[in-house]
Amino acid sequence: MKTLVIVAHPEIKESSTQLFLKEIAIKHEGITWLELNNASINNVEKNRSLLKENQRIIFQFPLLWYSAPGILFEWLRLNIKQTDDTWLAEKELGIVVNIGQAAKNYRIGASEQNSLSSLLSPLGSLANKLKMKLMPYFLIEKFEYLDEQKKKRLMIDYLQYLDLDQPISFEERQLWVISRLKKLVEVSKNDKLQLILNNVVEQKEKLDELKNEIKLIREAENNQY
């Protein structure tokens, strides 16, 4: 999967959230990181080339005044045409959005009175107009309050959102982790990483055996009737 991450943030160098995500994304093959600014939004030839080269397009931004930052819509105005559905069709569009408060506030009857789905619906309409496949949005809430363990979890979830088909099954998550660990072990020759890899593989094998046993039991029960 080749993924283009288009980052719209008015003060990106001051954003701990975007710096964290950037550090993760730029280290992995198949992911292109594009920060929007006055220069990049006007480089139409390069932008359209990137859109054609990548199968998954990600719009990434903080929610500002209940919408994406204006620079994203300016980039769309300059770089996308309605007739582009001829080659954008069947590409995937994902949305990574970070908010500074709890997600539970964004629903009918809560403090913000609107759901995130309704606030992000203009981008959903764009995907529909261009015949793109809209992925479920990826939400990051209150990043500044996350501890190290939660940041590690976010790192894995974020990379899998960029890399894996949606929706992601538990088995696909397991295989993804094993694949990543194998690459790290090959490069680093780290004994501790090898032990972690061995443990993950062992746990997956045990889970697969348990699933097979449950399947056989169910088949046996069904054959009794």
From TrEMBL:
Pfam families: Flavodoxin_2
Keywords for this protein: Coiled coil, Oxidoreductase
Coiled-coil annotated spans: 190-223
Gene3D superfamilies attached to this UniProt entry: 3.40.50.360
Transmembrane intervals: none
Domain of life: Bacteria
A GO molecular-function annotation: electron transfer activity
Ranges where the Flavodoxin-like fold domain occurs: 1-152
Keyword Oxidoreductase listed: yes
Protein name in UniProt: Flavodoxin-like fold domain-containing protein
